[in-house]
Amino acid sequence: MSSDPSFAGSSRTDVPGSAALTTTQGRTIVADAVVAKIAGIATREINGVYDVGGGTARAVGALRDRIPGARVNHSQGVAVQVGEKQAAIDIGIVANYGVALHELAVGIRRNIITAVERMTGLEVTEVHITVHDVALFDEGDHSVDAAVRPRVQ
Fold it and tell me: Which residues pair with 22 in a beta bridge?
């Protein structure tokens, strides 16, 4: 058995560095949930992303975070369509205030495409990004300047 992913019989060679999804030895199917999880993690890796998902998804995520032993849902806010050779991804984010949203979208898109294509061998045809909100500051941020603090204590 060869460890070379580019052996004969491959019908999947147009994505650079991708492994064959269909070969003479069998077929590999990548589930939608796997692609969604990869895309969610790749999005969270980008500086300027405060959170992933819209209002409802984030509310459910906040409730889940309060349950002891609950794990983070990495595919929260991510919708995918996966075919035999291609994937399309829709993702919603909340950005940090002050970040250039168009540049943030370029970075997210590049990171998602790179991660999904490298890990799955699927060609990513499109990544649609919706910015649902902008986070003004983190709730745990104690560096609020003096102008915002109450004048009377």
Answer: 27
What dihedral do alpha carbons 98, 102, 103, 109 form, nearest 10°?
130
Contact yes or no for 86/109 (Cβ under 8 A): no
Crossing angle between the packed helical segments 32-44 and 101-120, to the nearest 10 degrees: 140
pTM (predicted TM-score): 0.71
Q: CB-side exposure of 89: number of CA atoms within 13 Å? A: 36
Count of C-beta atoms within a 10 Å radius of residue 97: 11
pLDDT, tens only, 8-43:
333 434 444 345 688 889 989 999 999 999 999 999
Residue with tokens 């970040």: 99
Terminal Cα distance for the chain, rounded: 74
CB 50 within 8 A of CB 98: no
Nearest-CA neighbor of 27 among 115, 106, 121? 121
Q: How many residues does the chain have?
A: 153
Cβ atoms of residues 79 and 117 within 8 Å: no
